[in-house]
Design brief:
By secondary structure, this protein is of the alpha+beta class. The protein folds into 2 domains: about 80 residues, no CATH class; about 130 residues, no CATH class. Helix content is about 20%, strand content about 55%. The chain has a 3-stranded antiparallel sheet, covered by helices on one side. The protein has a 3-stranded antiparallel sheet with strand order 5-4-7, with no helix packed on it. The chain has a two-stranded antiparallel sheet with strand order 1-8. It is rod-shaped and about 170 Å long.
Length: about 230
């Protein structure tokens, strides 16, 4: 009887040990934080010099201009201003406007002279209306004014002087006409491309690094009771 009781007590103690004391190793997963170095790219501004080309007119000057009415003294004027009259110089009774242009640029180019010249009518009508500031359409018709328009081109080397006769060969207005002659003109220079520099802001990608917090799964181990193991694993 006593032996049976003792055996029962031993069995009970063994059962308690098996059920309550951790005896079995098992694994489990946990999420943990950790720090890591991350590479990223960022647009960073910087200053750069940029080459570009700009179109600008050639530099020039109108050295002289006159009409054929002043033809008697243009030789002295030309010598004084440093240019030569062309071989096709027009003499009275032909009338023309002379435009003297000098290329002041270091680049050769064309210079277009756009002109409008107005010639007189017959002698009696011109003398009749020469002092009037404003004329009626009928008076203009009686004057029989002739208008000549066109353009001449001078191709000049650097610092070369050219003379344009407008219109070329002049206009013969005849001896029966009063030398009432006027002309307007405009010089249109050629253009050239000039290299220029300017500072501009550009962007480039720069590699950088930073510390960030990440998470990862880790496997860990623990002891569980045999009963817990049998129930849950």
């Amino acid at each position: 009887m006593k032996i049976g009781i003792a055996v029962g007590i031993v069995i009970a103690i063994a059962a308690i040990v098996v059920c309550l004391v951790p005896l079995k190793w098992v694994s489990y997963e946990v999420t943990v934080d950790y720090e890591d170095t991350e590479t990223y790219y960022e647009d960073e501004p910087y200053q750069d010099t940029e080459i570009y080309y700009e179109t600008e007119p050639l530099e020039y000057r109108e050295l002289d201009s006159f009409t054929t009415e002043a033809i008697n003294d243009v030789g002295d004027r030309a010598a004084m201003l440093g240019y030569d009259l062309p071989d096709e110089i027009v003499e009275w009774p032909s009338f023309a406007v002379y435009v003297v242009v000098q290329n002041l640029d270091d680049t050769p180019g064309a210079f277009e002279i756009c002109y409008t010249c107005v010639g007189t009518a017959d002698k009696s009508a011109a003398e009749k209306y020469q002092w009037l500031v404003q004329l009626t359409p009928e008076e203009y018709q009686e004057l029989d004014i002739k208008c000549y328009a066109g353009s001449r081109e001078l191709y000049l080397q650097p610092f070369e002087v050219g003379v344009a006769i407008c219109p070329q060969g002049g206009v013969n207005i005849g001896f029966d006409r009063v030398p009432w002659w006027s002309g307007g003109y405009e010089v249109i220079p050629d253009t050239k491309e000039v290299e220029q520099e300017r500072t501009v802001t550009k962007y480039r990608q720069v590699e950088k690094q930073r510390t960030v917090t990440k998470q990862r799964e880790e496997t860990r181990y623990k002891k569980v009771t045999l009963l817990d193991y049998l129930l849950h694993y």
